[in-house]
C-alpha cells in the first residue's frame, strides 16, 4: 500500500487552517503575528528545498555526500544552540559540535548497523532520516540543559565556591548544577515516554503506518526511536558539559564570562 500523495492544491487548502491560530494571535494582540507568518514561510521554503535536495541524496546514495550533509546539520545545530542559549562561540562552539558529532555517530551507527543490521550503514534511506531525528532531539534538550546549567552556576556562584572550599573536586561541585540541568531538560521527555501510545501517537509511528508498514513494525521502530533519541541527547549533553567546563572556569575554579553580554541601548 502506497502513501496517498497530497497535491499542491490540497496542500494550499490545508494551509488555510493556519488562519485560525493567526486570527487569535492577532485578536489578542500577542505581538506574535509577524514572527508566526515569517516562521511559517521559512518552514515551507526550507522543507521544499530539503525535499529537492533529499531526492538527489537518495538518488546518488554516496556515503561521503551523506556524511557531509550530517556535518552541515551539526554545524547549523551548533550555531542554533549558541544563538538560543546566548553562550559565547569561542567557549562553547567546539564542545557543542563535538557532543553532537560523537553522539549522533555512535548512537546512529549502532542503531543502523547493530539493531537494524543493515550492511550499508551510510545508505541515505536510513542514514539521513535517523541522524536528522537524533539531531533535532539533541538540539532541543541541549538548549534547555545548557541554559539551566550555566544560569544555575551564575546565580549560585557562592554555593559552587563553598563546595570547592570544603574539599569538593570541580566535578563534585558541578554535580548539583548538572543534576538540575538534566531534570529540566529530560523531565518532559520522560513524561512523554510514559504516556506513549496512550495519550498520543508519535510522528514516526504514524508516518510508517501511513507509508504502509504494519502497526507491529511501526511500534518497534518507535520504541527504538525513543531509546536512541533519549540516549543520544544525554550523551551529547555530558560530552558538551565535560568539554565546555575545561574552558568555562579559571585555574581557581571561578566561572568565567560565558554568556554574550547584551548591549544596552541609550
User: C-alpha Rg, in Å?
Assistant: 21 Å
Question: What fraction of residues sit in β-strands?
Answer: under 5%
Structural class by SSE content: mainly alpha
| Biggest sheet record | none
Shape, principal axes of CA atoms: globular
Count the strands? Answer: 0
The poorly predicted ranges are none
Q: Mean of residue pLDDT?
A: 89
Order of helices and strands: HHHHHHHHHH
Distance between termini?
Answer: 64 Å
Q: Can you count the helices?
A: 10
**Structural domain count:** 2
Helix amount, in percent? over 70%
Membrane topology: Multi-pass membrane protein
Family: Belongs to the UPF0014 family.
GO cellular component, one term: plasma membrane
Protein name: Putative ABC transport system, membrane protein
